[in-house]
Amino acid sequence: MKSTIKSSIQADLATVWHVVTSLHDFSWRSDIISIEVFDEKHFKETSKDGYETSFTITVVEPLMKYSFLMDNENLSGEWTGYFNQTERGTEIQFTESVCLKKWWLYPFAKWYLKKHQKQYVSDLRLKLKLPISEDP
Length: 136
Prior knowledge:
The protein is an alpha+beta fold. Helices cover about 25% and strands about 45% of the residues. The protein is built from 2 helices and 7 strands, in the order βαββββββα. The chain has helices spanning about 15-20, 105-125; strands spanning about 1-10, 30-35, 40-45, 50-60, 65-70, 75-85, 90-100. The protein has a 7-stranded antiparallel sheet with strand order 1-7-6-5-4-3-2, with helices on one face. The radius of gyration is 15 Å and the shape is globular. The relative contact order is 0.25.
């Protein structure tokens, strides 16, 4: 299962990159309560619902591409973010590809991924003190 969100952010590329890739300032994220960093490639997030997800960073191309593998009790998969400087700020494209571990999650998975991605971009806009808008 795969879901992609694209958005234009009226902030410079370096700022957007720093906010998205920082493992230390997660206070802007409405979905998680903690991040535990193990080393430069491995970390774990704990959601407000108590789910723990392990991450392994696989690609860091500064100011261009950030990618990681993720795994928890419900799913495994990959998240990839692309960043591009534009005249009006930064264009982002975030794609999540997941394999579900429980059959009964399938009817809700696409809806959940889309909802989660929209919330992430909304949280990012709030962090950057930008108006929340609906991008196509």
